[in-house]
Amino acid sequence: MALSIGFDVYGTLVDPLGIAEDLRSEVGDLAVRMTALWRAKQLEYTFRRAAMHRYEKFGVCTRDALVFAERSLDMVLDDATRNRIVARYERLPAFADSITGLQAIRAAGHRMYAFSNGEPESIRRLLAVAGLLALLDGVVSVDEVSSYKPDPAVYQHFLKRAGAPDKDTWLVSSNSFDVIGAAAAGLRTAWVKRDLSAVFDPWGIEPDLIVPNLGELAVRLADRHAAE
């Protein structure tokens, strides 16, 4: 039986912290600190905008978070430099297991989608550069409903786009808030625990699977399918 599987993009298929090496040429030794702060604030801004019903596109949240990170580190970048840095968000590196993991899951006959906070065209460019776009059956963006994960509306939107029953639709993410949001909306879930020290949010909502990488996910999905 084929499953419909939505893969979170940032942090699951590609590494948003991988931009730190690119930033060294712009900000030197502050690159790692700036990247971590930028990413944390980017997510915070999506949460706040969804809660306030004041939607702006992911690119706006990304740029605003970069400005916050600059100011927090007593730094001021000119517009040209800021534009170059933001543009690199479409060239983030894929995790080492992303291509082979997606290939194995695709070979099992499952339908696979990118399901992201990012804008559709930006996600397509990002995935194309990372060598992942051709492995997926489509791109589903929260921009289509003008909200952000973990708003229940975005998961319902994915279910409609995937066109499969809840029990056959999965969300795969390294972000525990995303996994909890999807589970609460009725999807099956897999948490990709890329950081071995990561702690899953203790909300009493657990993922159906916990895996360290997408290769292991392919194996575990095959095992579950055989058992069912």
What does this structure look like?
- With 228 residues, the chain is an alpha/beta fold.
- The protein has two domains: 4-14 and 92-227, HAD superfamily/HAD-like (Rossmann fold); 16-90, DNA polymerase, domain 1.
- The protein has helices at residues 20-27, 31-52, 58-72, 79-87, 98-107, 120-129, 152-162, 176-184, 214-227, and strands spanning 4-7, 111-116, 138-141, 169-173, 188-192, 209-211.
- The chain has a six-stranded parallel β-sheet, with helices on both faces.
- The radius of gyration is 17 Å and the shape is globular.
Cα-to-Cα separation, first versus last residue: 10 Å
> Percent of residues in helical segments?
40-55%
| Structural class determined from secondary elements | alpha/beta
Helices, by number, come to 9
Identify the strand order in the major beta sheet: 3-2-1-4-5-6
- CATH H-tier superfamily of the largest domain: HAD superfamily/HAD-like
CATH class of the largest domain: Alpha Beta
The major beta sheet can be summarized as:
6 strands, parallel
User: What coarse outline follows from CA principal-axis ratios?
Assistant: globular
- The overall strand count is 6
The whole-number mean of residue pLDDT values reads: 95
Order of helices and strands: EHHHHHEHEHEHEEH
Query: Poorly predicted ranges (pLDDT <50, ≥5 residues)?
Result: none
Question: Approximately what portion of the residues adopt beta-strand conformation?
Answer: 5-15%
Give Rg in angstroms.
17 Å
How many structural units, i.e. domains?
A: 2
What's the CATH architecture name of the largest domain? 3-Layer(aba) Sandwich
What is CATH's topology name of the largest domain?
Answer: Rossmann fold
